[in-house]
Structures are given as structure tokens and as C-alpha cells.
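Human: Cast an eye over this sequence-structure pair and say how the chain folds.
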Amino acid sequence: MNIYSLSDLHLSFNCLKPMNIFGSVWDNYLDEVKSECDKLGDEDILLIAGDISWAMTLDEAKPDLDFIGSIKGKKVLIRGNHDYWWKSISAVRGILPSGVYAIQNDCLRIGNILITGSRGWGTPEVGCTLTKEDRKIYDREIVRFGIGLEAASKQRADGDKLIVMSHYPPFNSTMSPTPFTELFCRYNVDAVVYGHLHGAGVKLCKKVTVGGIPYFLTSCDLVRNKPVLIV
């Protein structure tokens, strides 16, 4: 069993919002995603760290979720900032195809792999500060990560690997420690995957190590629509 990640699919089978308005890198990208994901094994895990669908409602999102369901392996989702269709977790789980799982304030075990995560929020650059509203969301996301990590720690056994999914990068472009990275260190996380960032101007490397933990940026346009091997 291998663990891969590929995030920010921005699917729109129902609302028809073509991603190639953002550049030719998005031309035929879903064909490439499907072709690359078909190389996965049935027991492999694919982590999709948010911005799954442009849909506004669960019904609109169903064709997009069915596309994810058609991909080989076990798929694990968290919510991104554009996933407005994602309402209550029970409603989301009620519409997911077989082999697709959603995480929210909890932890999922697949074999000896524990997976948790949350949306996160943008960490300000040096010299900048969060607005009052952003600070409220940022602090709330720290709590949500903590809830999931605590749930993982209660069931973690020798030999288990703990993987965290975050939609937003858990640090700024300097990759200095943040409350998010300090939390991940405290719980001895084995790897973190994230997305959200797009385009040629992205300055962060696609794999960095902070506090001894590897962090993988897996936005599909930045990794040429090829799932990134995590474990």
C-alpha cells in the first residue's frame, strides 16, 4: 500500500467552469489526472487536500464526487476554501461513492495509516498581521487540527504512520515555525500534505522539511497532474 496526494482538482462537471481560463497548464488536465491515477493500486490511498469542486450544493457536486470515486484506490478528502458545497459532514459522507472518505474534526484509519486534517488558514508574511476576522478563523483551525490529532493519538499504535492534510500551507514563504507546524511536531506527525497554491509564481518548493517533518505541496497544476508519493 502506497500513499499519494493530489489536491485542488477544481472539478466542475455540473457547473461547467473550465479551469483553462487560468492558463494552458489546465488544458485537458482531467484526462491527465484520470490517466495518472489509473496507475494506482486498489489498496493505495490518494489524499485530496481540498478545493475539490466548484459546485455550490451537494447535488451539484455529485458528478464531481463520482469522478473521484472512479479513480483507483481509496480516496480521502478534506474541505478547501472553494468547497461551498461541503455542508455538514454527515451530509457529505451520505453522498460519497464507495471508497471515498471525508475527514472533519476526526481521524481515519486505513491499515496502519492514520489520517487527519483540516482546511487551515493563510499564515501572514513577515511584517504583515491577520485581520480580526482572519485571526478568529486561524485560531479556530488550530483547534480543529488539535481535535483531529488528539483523536489520532488515542488510537495510535507502534508502527502506525500519522499523516496530516491541510488545504492552506501551514506556514508562509519563509517556512518559519507556526502554531500549525508546532502542533504537528508535538504529535509526531510523519508527513503533511497541502495545496491551495497555483501558478508559475509560487515560491514554495514542492517538498520541504520543517521541524523534521516533510511537507508536500500537491496542487495538481504544480505537479503536472501526477499523484505525489508520500509514503
Summary: Residues 86 and 92 are 6 Å apart (CA to CA).
